[in-house]
Amino acid sequence: MRGAMMGGYILKRLISAVPVLLGITIIVFLIMSLIPGDPATAILGSYATPENVEKLNRDLGLDKPMVQRYFIWLGNMLTGDFGRSFSLNRPVLDEIVERFSATLILAGTAFVLCSVLGVLAGVVSAARQYGLADKAITFIVLIGISVPSFFLGMMMILLFAVNLRWLPVSGMYAIYGGGDLPDLLNHLIMPALALAAVATGVIARLARSAMLEVLRQDYIRTARAKGVPERRVIMGHALRAAMVSIIPVLGIQAGFVLSGAVYIEIVFQWPGVGRMLVEAILKRDLLLVQGGVVFVAACYVMFNIAVDVAQSLLDPRIKT
Amino acid sequence: MSTFLKLLFRNRLAAMGAVVLGAILLLVLVTPILPLHDPDITATADRFKRPFTEGHLLGTDHLGRDLLSRLLHGTRLSLAIGVAAALIAATIGSAIGIVAGYFGGRTDNIIMRGVDMLMAFPYILLALAIVAALGPGLMNALIAVAAVNVPFFARNIRGITVGLAGHEFIDAARLAGMGHTRIILTELLPNVLPVIVIAMSTTVGWMILETAGLSFLGLGSQPPQADLGSMLGEARSAMISHPHTSIVPGVMIFLIVMSINLLGDGVRDALDPRLRSGALSRPRATTLVERQGDIPAATDDLLAIQELETQFHVGNRIYRAVGGVSLAVKSGECLGVIGESGSGKSVTALSVMGLVASPPGVITGGAVRFQGEDLIGAPYETLRRKRGDRVAYIFQDPLSTLHPLYRIGQQLAEAIQSHHKIGSAEARSRAIRLLKDVRIPNAEARVDNFPHEMSGGMRQRVGIAMALANEPDVIIADEPTTALDVTVQAQILSLLDDLRRDRGLAIIFITHDFGVVAQLCDRVAVMYAGRIVEEGPTKAVLDAPAHPYTKRLIACVPELGGGRRELAAIPGLPPVVDDLPPGCAFAPRCDKAQDNCRAAEVVLLGNEPRAVRCLYPEEAI
């Protein structure tokens, strides 16, 4: 019964995402229409050949009214046609999908890291409130949330790659040989940690205060009165209740991790979508930017639906 | 305001943040008049000078420019851009929020839909899209960062405005014929301004970081002009050979962000009243014990509370919640403990198994003996093994005392499995049997309910079933029927009474209701201000109360389920237990009190089982 209700809930959330996704395309379209001057030249760059400009004008219908142009663009995207990147001379969607998978590996790892480490640190900190562990964690967290991730990444490269020579300086795979999983992990450690640092701190702080809030509740006293071992009181009763307020923040932090990936990909030369976007902006390859932004934002909306579903699975009081 | 500042500066970290930030601001303000090199003059002969070289305190960068000068000018630029972005975002966002919140209805709906959509973006995507459209450059980066933060202000300020728009003073202004613009500017704005300022102070650090980030990516300030982000970005290529060029701007960003964070935390803490009262501290697994004085000798009672003293230490105040209470029960016996709210009866009960929240609770004296063994100060594991197994609790208000996210079957099974190694199927069938024992209909289905799916009476039965799970010797019931209506209360009481007779368990029943005591208890103890003022067999106490307090209490409880309103019938209020009078605590409210009642401590006197703590008792005992 609950399973059927869950399915209905997921469907409902998916349907409710449609206007948000449309809104995203409208916002991106409006931003792109801010481009000063001749849009075709701006999109293709000032070195574009006249044939290309003409073709783009035809493809996008740039001579037509704005509303019509939007629907043409939207229709094209729905059929998988995100246009063609002039700087890379290949379909935008192909490039995005390839780059986004690299970003997913990096941001996904960082997200898992910051969720696990952050929640653990918060739990330990709360369970040992005002103790040595709490003070140490609070101090590390303060530094973690204050160091810009790009600076942290650079310092990590200096220490672990240049001075200690433990890890590779940058990239996703070794240039010669490599290409296997251990090679990937070796390259992933530093950027994932640097990317996770700030979010770990934010989550740890939140988890600590959520745990402290929960530990004062009457049902924790009930658990103790039943003789439930303290470890289970903390890791079971208290953490489960605290997760109700932690999970939405995990969803928000995922957005920050995805944002931070842009810097980390630049610092570590990671071939992800963030670096692609920055390079595309510098090359004025606007179709690539436009497509990349819409694509990643849409994925983020889907991710947030998954967070909501997880939340409703955890908390039976949420109406599904 | 001055208390706020005092609180802020009592927080040493916040004060440190303020000092660091103040120093940076001061340096940045006087930068133009400092004797520095021109930040943009290149001198390729002096490339990559190390810090502390002659004439270049922090060294030089890849073009031989003085790093100290560039750092200060860059900081100036970064701070200015960050603050400007914060101001722009706050102004536009607040305007949108106020308009949406004030007009409400469709205006609100459309605006907030748009805001929600903007918030659906990871912030950098939006910023990158804007910079992509407008082209890289410091002003465009500023616009992008401001735009990205507009939704945050719009949403916050809208919430506040919606709350304010319902107030009378807005209606009054409207009736007085003021136009919308005037109402917004003269009535609403002054009220939301403090919130805007606080929201700005918490986000300005963030915006400094974001603009620095865009510059780092090469999308913000363009050479030769440099803010902290672009300094770091330019230094990156020489990071390995000349790390100081990266470290200098990086550390500055770190210091700025950290000091703003520290200050922001301090502001938040100073504004949060809960932190001031220390209410956010975590209760430990057992109550803290700091016992002074002798430990009373063992008796042959099943459970004996002996001269128990429990205090709450809050700041430098000491609340004597329990001041030397002795109570005992034998098997099959029911003892009632009665008193007003705050008389210390619940704290007494919770002290037995070390469940008083600590901090702030501390057990400072006496003993609690179960079958002769002292539980106060016993190791945690000893206490845990007895909790719920030999001595079980039933608490008031089962909605807050049952875990909201576990099915009741799981909660019951856990009570058993904490003390017995049994499988989950076995535990589940025992849970169902327990639910049947407390007469919950349809127990097989109910076992999978969550607490919020049950009625108050059902939940209380679950609470009782949980206490019975391991067939304990003693049940301590802390106002188990107070939250229930009268018919359910009667059912629960008769259920408890049956269990006592069938299983021979001892019950300590805590209540403020004499009707309940009369129905259930063999003996009763009356508590006032943390002490027992009278005790004896229920009938004797009810028929001939000896303490004036007991008498007054009974006189104003004519029937079962009288609730709490009887308290008004006794003039005055119970004393605050951090400042108890030297003599009888009830004397200020007692019409028979004499000078010697107030002069010195009054002892509990009488012949077993009757006793009273009064110099002028109503009845001789």
Automatic annotation (TrEMBL), chain B:
It is found in: Cell inner membrane; Cell membrane. Residues 75-264 form the ABC transmembrane type-1 domain. It holds the Pfam family BPD_transp_1. Keywords: ATP-binding, Cell membrane, Membrane, Nucleotide-binding, Transmembrane, Transmembrane helix, Transport. Its main location: membrane. The keyword DNA damage does not apply. It is a peripheral membrane protein; Multi-pass membrane protein. The chain crosses the membrane at residues 12-34, 77-103, 188-209, 246-264. Residues 303-554 form the ABC transporter domain. This is Dipeptide/oligopeptide/nickel ABC transporter permease/ATP-binding protein. The keyword Cell membrane applies. It comes from the Bacteria.
